[in-house]
Amino acid sequence: MSAESFKPIFMRIASSPSQLAVVRAVIEKVCELTGFDAKAAGRIMLSVDEALTNVIRHAYDGADDQPIEVEVATITDSPARSLRICLRDYGRVADPATIKSRDLANVRPGGLGVHIITECMDQVTYTPAEGGGTLLTMVKKLPSEKETRKT
Amino acid sequence: MNAQVPNASVKSVRWVDRAAIVYATGDIDLEHSTQFQQALLKLLDENPSYIVVNLKEVPYMDSSGVASLVKLLSRVRKSGAALRLVELNERVRSLFEITRLDSVFEIFGTEQEAIS
pTM for this one? Predict the structure, then answer.
Protein backbone atom coordinates (compact mmCIF):
# COMPACT_ATOMS: atom_id res chain seq x y z
CA MET A 1 0.00 0.00 0.00
CA SER A 2 1.31 3.46 -0.83
CA ALA A 3 0.76 6.60 1.20
CA GLU A 4 -1.38 7.85 -1.70
CA SER A 5 -3.83 4.95 -1.43
CA PHE A 6 -4.01 5.01 2.37
CA LYS A 7 -7.52 5.86 3.58
CA PRO A 8 -7.96 7.80 6.86
CA ILE A 9 -8.58 5.83 10.04
CA PHE A 10 -10.86 7.12 12.76
CA MET A 11 -10.94 5.59 16.27
CA ARG A 12 -12.94 6.59 19.29
CA ILE A 13 -11.44 5.14 22.47
CA ALA A 14 -12.00 5.45 26.21
CA SER A 15 -9.42 7.33 28.27
CA SER A 16 -8.15 4.09 29.77
CA PRO A 17 -4.45 3.15 29.92
CA SER A 18 -5.49 -0.28 28.63
CA GLN A 19 -6.30 1.33 25.26
CA LEU A 20 -2.75 2.57 24.70
CA ALA A 21 -1.40 -0.74 23.42
CA VAL A 22 -4.26 -0.96 20.90
CA VAL A 23 -3.59 2.50 19.50
CA ARG A 24 0.15 1.84 19.39
CA ALA A 25 -0.46 -1.30 17.34
CA VAL A 26 -2.57 0.65 14.84
CA ILE A 27 -0.02 3.45 14.55
CA GLU A 28 2.83 0.99 14.07
CA LYS A 29 0.96 -0.75 11.27
CA VAL A 30 0.06 2.53 9.59
CA CYS A 31 3.70 3.62 9.73
CA GLU A 32 4.78 0.36 8.16
CA LEU A 33 2.19 0.69 5.37
CA THR A 34 3.16 4.28 4.62
CA GLY A 35 6.86 3.52 4.32
CA PHE A 36 8.43 4.60 7.62
CA ASP A 37 11.35 2.54 8.85
CA ALA A 38 11.22 0.82 12.25
CA LYS A 39 13.07 3.61 14.06
CA ALA A 40 10.79 6.36 12.76
CA ALA A 41 7.72 4.21 13.40
CA GLY A 42 8.84 3.72 17.00
CA ARG A 43 9.19 7.46 17.50
CA ILE A 44 5.79 8.23 16.00
CA MET A 45 4.17 5.50 18.10
CA LEU A 46 5.89 6.87 21.21
CA SER A 47 4.66 10.39 20.46
CA VAL A 48 1.05 9.24 20.14
CA ASP A 49 1.37 7.19 23.33
CA GLU A 50 2.77 10.19 25.24
CA ALA A 51 0.06 12.49 23.90
CA LEU A 52 -2.68 10.05 24.95
CA THR A 53 -1.05 9.65 28.36
CA ASN A 54 -1.14 13.43 28.81
CA VAL A 55 -4.82 13.53 27.85
CA ILE A 56 -5.65 10.78 30.35
CA ARG A 57 -3.61 12.35 33.15
CA HIS A 58 -4.20 16.05 32.64
CA ALA A 59 -7.33 16.63 30.55
CA TYR A 60 -9.31 13.88 32.31
CA ASP A 61 -7.48 13.69 35.68
CA GLY A 62 -7.06 9.94 35.30
CA ALA A 63 -10.72 9.15 34.58
CA ASP A 64 -10.79 6.02 32.41
CA ASP A 65 -14.21 6.36 30.78
CA GLN A 66 -13.95 9.62 28.86
CA PRO A 67 -13.84 9.87 25.05
CA ILE A 68 -10.75 10.41 22.96
CA GLU A 69 -10.94 10.54 19.18
CA VAL A 70 -7.94 9.56 17.10
CA GLU A 71 -7.68 10.30 13.40
CA VAL A 72 -4.79 9.09 11.26
CA ALA A 73 -4.44 10.31 7.69
CA THR A 74 -1.86 10.93 5.02
CA ILE A 75 -1.56 14.26 3.24
CA THR A 76 -0.30 13.59 -0.26
CA ASP A 77 -1.81 16.40 -2.29
CA SER A 78 0.78 18.97 -1.29
CA PRO A 79 4.57 19.05 -1.68
CA ALA A 80 4.91 18.36 2.05
CA ARG A 81 3.68 14.76 1.93
CA SER A 82 3.05 13.78 5.51
CA LEU A 83 1.36 11.58 8.07
CA ARG A 84 -1.08 13.50 10.25
CA ILE A 85 -2.37 12.23 13.57
CA CYS A 86 -5.08 14.18 15.40
CA LEU A 87 -6.18 13.56 18.99
CA ARG A 88 -9.31 15.23 20.19
CA ASP A 89 -10.43 15.19 23.83
CA TYR A 90 -13.33 16.82 25.65
CA GLY A 91 -11.55 17.45 28.93
CA ARG A 92 -9.92 20.39 30.67
CA VAL A 93 -8.26 22.76 28.26
CA ALA A 94 -4.69 23.82 28.95
CA ASP A 95 -3.40 27.13 27.66
CA PRO A 96 -1.27 26.08 24.65
CA ALA A 97 1.37 28.59 25.77
CA THR A 98 1.88 26.60 28.97
CA ILE A 99 2.45 23.28 27.18
CA LYS A 100 6.23 23.23 27.07
CA SER A 101 9.13 20.87 27.26
CA ARG A 102 11.01 21.04 30.57
CA ASP A 103 14.73 21.37 31.29
CA LEU A 104 16.13 17.87 30.82
CA ALA A 105 19.20 18.69 32.91
CA ASN A 106 16.93 18.50 35.93
CA VAL A 107 16.71 14.72 36.31
CA ARG A 108 13.42 13.92 37.97
CA PRO A 109 10.47 11.64 37.26
CA GLY A 110 7.76 12.95 34.95
CA GLY A 111 7.27 15.84 32.57
CA LEU A 112 9.03 14.25 29.59
CA GLY A 113 6.02 13.67 27.35
CA VAL A 114 5.93 17.08 25.66
CA HIS A 115 9.68 16.94 25.03
CA ILE A 116 9.33 13.52 23.41
CA ILE A 117 6.46 14.63 21.18
CA THR A 118 8.19 17.78 19.95
CA GLU A 119 11.47 15.94 19.46
CA CYS A 120 9.95 13.10 17.43
CA MET A 121 7.32 14.88 15.33
CA ASP A 122 7.87 17.63 12.74
CA GLN A 123 4.91 19.76 13.68
CA VAL A 124 2.79 19.80 16.86
CA THR A 125 -0.20 22.07 17.36
CA TYR A 126 -2.57 22.34 20.32
CA THR A 127 -5.87 24.08 19.56
CA PRO A 128 -8.90 24.61 21.82
CA ALA A 129 -11.61 22.53 20.12
CA GLU A 130 -15.04 23.80 19.23
CA GLY A 131 -17.46 22.53 21.88
CA GLY A 132 -14.74 22.10 24.53
CA GLY A 133 -11.59 20.09 24.90
CA THR A 134 -8.40 20.18 22.86
CA LEU A 135 -7.41 19.16 19.36
CA LEU A 136 -3.79 18.06 19.14
CA THR A 137 -2.41 17.75 15.64
CA MET A 138 0.91 15.98 15.08
CA VAL A 139 2.52 15.84 11.66
CA LYS A 140 5.46 13.79 10.42
CA LYS A 141 6.90 14.14 6.94
CA LEU A 142 6.48 10.93 4.94
CA PRO A 143 9.68 9.21 3.82
CA SER A 144 10.57 9.83 0.20
CA GLU A 145 10.16 6.97 -2.27
CA LYS A 146 13.93 6.65 -2.29
CA GLU A 147 14.00 6.30 1.52
CA THR A 148 11.17 3.78 1.43
CA ARG A 149 12.95 1.64 -1.16
CA LYS A 150 15.99 1.49 1.12
CA THR A 151 14.08 -0.15 3.98
CA MET B 1 17.08 -13.11 50.12
CA ASN B 2 13.89 -13.50 48.19
CA ALA B 3 11.82 -10.33 47.99
CA GLN B 4 8.20 -10.94 47.04
CA VAL B 5 8.23 -8.54 44.12
CA PRO B 6 7.22 -10.44 40.96
CA ASN B 7 4.08 -9.11 39.27
CA ALA B 8 2.85 -8.52 35.71
CA SER B 9 5.84 -6.27 34.94
CA VAL B 10 8.54 -8.04 36.93
CA LYS B 11 8.82 -11.70 36.07
CA SER B 12 11.43 -12.64 38.65
CA VAL B 13 14.34 -11.46 40.78
CA ARG B 14 17.63 -13.31 41.08
CA TRP B 15 20.09 -12.52 43.82
CA VAL B 16 23.84 -12.78 43.38
CA ASP B 17 25.30 -12.00 46.79
CA ARG B 18 23.82 -8.56 47.53
CA ALA B 19 23.05 -7.72 43.91
CA ALA B 20 19.43 -8.00 42.78
CA ILE B 21 18.92 -8.86 39.13
CA VAL B 22 15.39 -7.93 38.10
CA TYR B 23 13.80 -9.48 35.02
CA ALA B 24 11.21 -7.06 33.69
CA THR B 25 8.62 -8.19 31.18
CA GLY B 26 6.00 -6.75 28.83
CA ASP B 27 5.27 -3.20 27.75
CA ILE B 28 6.04 -0.67 30.50
CA ASP B 29 3.53 2.09 29.80
CA LEU B 30 0.95 4.05 31.75
CA GLU B 31 -1.01 0.85 32.34
CA HIS B 32 1.90 -1.01 33.93
CA SER B 33 4.40 1.54 35.21
CA THR B 34 2.87 1.87 38.69
CA GLN B 35 3.25 -1.81 39.50
CA PHE B 36 6.68 -1.82 37.84
CA GLN B 37 7.76 0.99 40.14
CA GLN B 38 6.24 -0.63 43.23
CA ALA B 39 8.09 -3.87 42.55
CA LEU B 40 11.39 -2.07 42.04
CA LEU B 41 11.10 0.13 45.13
CA LYS B 42 10.17 -2.87 47.27
CA LEU B 43 13.56 -4.37 46.48
CA LEU B 44 15.22 -1.60 48.48
CA ASP B 45 13.82 -3.18 51.65
CA GLU B 46 16.43 -5.92 51.13
CA ASN B 47 19.32 -3.41 51.11
CA PRO B 48 20.91 -4.53 47.83
CA SER B 49 24.40 -3.27 47.01
CA TYR B 50 23.18 -2.76 43.48
CA ILE B 51 20.17 -3.46 41.31
CA VAL B 52 20.43 -4.67 37.73
CA VAL B 53 17.24 -4.28 35.70
CA ASN B 54 17.24 -6.65 32.73
CA LEU B 55 14.96 -5.21 30.02
CA LYS B 56 15.45 -7.96 27.44
CA GLU B 57 11.77 -8.91 27.58
CA VAL B 58 10.47 -5.34 27.52
CA PRO B 59 9.53 -4.60 23.90
CA TYR B 60 8.26 -1.11 24.64
CA MET B 61 8.60 1.56 27.30
CA ASP B 62 7.21 5.08 27.51
CA SER B 63 8.04 8.04 29.76
CA SER B 64 6.00 6.65 32.64
CA GLY B 65 8.30 3.61 32.67
CA VAL B 66 11.33 5.88 32.51
CA ALA B 67 9.90 7.89 35.42
CA SER B 68 9.74 4.69 37.48
CA LEU B 69 13.42 4.06 36.80
CA VAL B 70 14.35 7.69 37.56
CA LYS B 71 12.57 7.43 40.91
CA LEU B 72 14.35 4.16 41.64
CA LEU B 73 17.69 5.72 40.68
CA SER B 74 17.13 8.57 43.11
CA ARG B 75 16.27 6.19 45.95
CA VAL B 76 19.13 3.82 45.11
CA ARG B 77 21.67 6.66 45.16
CA LYS B 78 20.38 7.87 48.53
CA SER B 79 20.89 4.39 49.93
CA GLY B 80 24.47 4.27 48.63
CA ALA B 81 23.71 1.49 46.17
CA ALA B 82 23.89 1.48 42.35
CA LEU B 83 21.45 0.87 39.52
CA ARG B 84 22.34 -0.67 36.18
CA LEU B 85 20.18 -1.33 33.12
CA VAL B 86 20.93 -4.14 30.69
CA GLU B 87 19.76 -5.62 27.38
CA LEU B 88 17.69 -2.66 26.18
CA ASN B 89 16.31 -3.22 22.70
CA GLU B 90 16.78 -0.50 20.10
CA ARG B 91 13.37 1.04 20.73
CA VAL B 92 13.80 1.31 24.50
CA ARG B 93 17.35 2.60 24.12
CA SER B 94 16.06 5.25 21.74
CA LEU B 95 13.70 6.50 24.46
CA PHE B 96 16.66 7.02 26.81
CA GLU B 97 18.50 8.88 24.05
CA ILE B 98 15.53 11.13 23.23
CA THR B 99 15.17 12.06 26.90
CA ARG B 100 18.99 12.44 27.32
CA LEU B 101 18.86 9.91 30.14
CA ASP B 102 21.31 7.58 28.42
CA SER B 103 24.05 9.65 30.06
CA VAL B 104 22.39 9.50 33.48
CA PHE B 105 21.85 5.76 33.76
CA GLU B 106 24.55 3.09 33.66
CA ILE B 107 23.53 1.04 30.64
CA PHE B 108 25.22 -2.25 29.72
CA GLY B 109 24.83 -4.61 26.80
CA THR B 110 24.70 -7.78 28.86
CA GLU B 111 24.01 -8.89 32.39
CA GLN B 112 27.52 -10.28 32.64
CA GLU B 113 29.02 -6.86 31.89
CA ALA B 114 26.79 -5.24 34.48
CA ILE B 115 27.63 -7.57 37.32
CA SER B 116 31.32 -8.14 36.61
Answer: 0.91
